[in-house]
């Protein structure tokens, strides 16, 4: 939807952003979707997060946060995050929601344009809890590691679960996320395959540019373990070859960053290709200067 065209007609905003959630709320009310685990709908840090993770985030220093992380390739962080019981409860909650949708013969809103299976968690009552999840437990980390893409000013999210396996999605194509920072946590269950492959961070102008060898990295999901990366870090998921894999995704966004980006041209603080071009320009500049000095000396 072109917002400039829609700007004369506020109903467009309503339809685009709120229509589906509002429908679900109304349906909720009349058709009585019963939550299975009520405790998921408000934040209980010690029941949701592992003690190591909680301690690091609560201490909230660069050192404490870095101490629980591995950074296998620049910009991709991995850490043990969720309690096994929380993962199980969330999986059961999604299954409960899907059963209800099926029984009511409703059509479920799919997580994004790429995944056919899974559910948008914000649409069945988890939005407030997940907002707190982002503000209190992801923002402190992204503020440290991704300040140049709005990591310090995250203010909205899109949260969903994806499902891969037999009768589900098999793999996920190469893409970038509609987020500044993405949290991807494996919830289970048992599976093989499904590795995430990363191929370098790119701005919009360079999204299709070549991958450098040192930008290639494959990550194997482990239940309870999170991967954090910039939304513009190109990636995809390999086929889940057996079993069932379900992951929680939080696409975290910063409206401040999105506004500022409109007035910028050079993204060399994070785009791998902008950086490469900048280095190339510097090399050419040094060469030209040397050549010029050589000519002067020869005179
Ligand atoms: O399947 C995965 O782990 C990746 C999912 C993903 O990249 C996405 O939904 O944006
Ligand atoms: Fe993604």
Automatic annotation (TrEMBL):
GO molecular function: dioxygenase activity; iron ion binding; L-ascorbic acid binding; oxidoreductase activity, acting on paired donors, with incorporation or reduction of molecular oxygen
Coiled-coil annotated residue ranges, if any: none
Domain Fe2OG dioxygenase: 155-254
Keywords for this protein: Dioxygenase, Iron, Membrane, Metal-binding, Oxidoreductase, Transmembrane, Transmembrane helix, Vitamin C
Cofactor(s) recorded in Swiss-Prot or TrEMBL: L-ascorbate
Annotated transmembrane regions: 12-33
PANTHER family: 2-OXOGLUTARATE AND IRON-DEPENDENT OXYGENASE DOMAIN-CONTAINING PROTEIN 2
Name of the featured protein: Fe2OG dioxygenase domain-containing protein
């Amino acid at each position: 939807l072109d917002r400039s065209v829609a700007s004369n007609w506020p109903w467009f905003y309503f339809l685009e952003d709120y229509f589906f959630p509002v429908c679900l709320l109304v349906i909720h009310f009349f058709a009585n979707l019963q939550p299975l685990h009520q405790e998921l709908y408000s934040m209980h840090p010690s029941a949701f997060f592992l003690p190591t993770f909680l301690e690091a985030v609560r201490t909230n220093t660069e050192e404490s946060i870095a101490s629980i992380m591995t950074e296998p390739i620049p910009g991709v962080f991995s850490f043990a995050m969720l309690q096994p019981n929380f993962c199980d409860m969330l999986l059961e909650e999604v299954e409960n929601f899907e059963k209800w949708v099926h029984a009511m013969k409703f059509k479920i809103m799919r997580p994004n344009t790429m995944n056919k299976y899974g559910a948008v968690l914000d649409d069945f009552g988890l939005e407030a809890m997940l907002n707190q999840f982002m503000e209190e437990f992801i923002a402190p980390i992204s503020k440290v590691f991704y300040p140049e893409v709005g990591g310090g000013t995250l203010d909205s999210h899109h949260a969903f679960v994806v499902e891969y396996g037999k009768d589900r999605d098999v793999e996920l194509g190469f893409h970038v996320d509609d987020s500044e920072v993405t949290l991807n946590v494996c919830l289970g269950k048992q599976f093989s395959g499904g590795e995430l492959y990363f191929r370098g961070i790119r701005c919009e102008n360079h999204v299709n540019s070549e991958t450098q060898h040192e930008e290639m990295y494959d990550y194997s999901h482990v239940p309870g373990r999170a991967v954090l990366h910039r939304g513009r870090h190109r990636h995809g998921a390999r086929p889940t070859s057996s079993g069932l894999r379900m992951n929680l995704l939080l696409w975290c966004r910063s409206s401040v960053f999105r506004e500022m980006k409109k007035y910028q041209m050079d993204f060399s603080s994070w785009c791998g290709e902008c950086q490469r071009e900048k280095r190339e320009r510097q090399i050419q500049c040094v060469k030209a200067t040397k050549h010029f000095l050589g000519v002067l000396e020869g005179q």
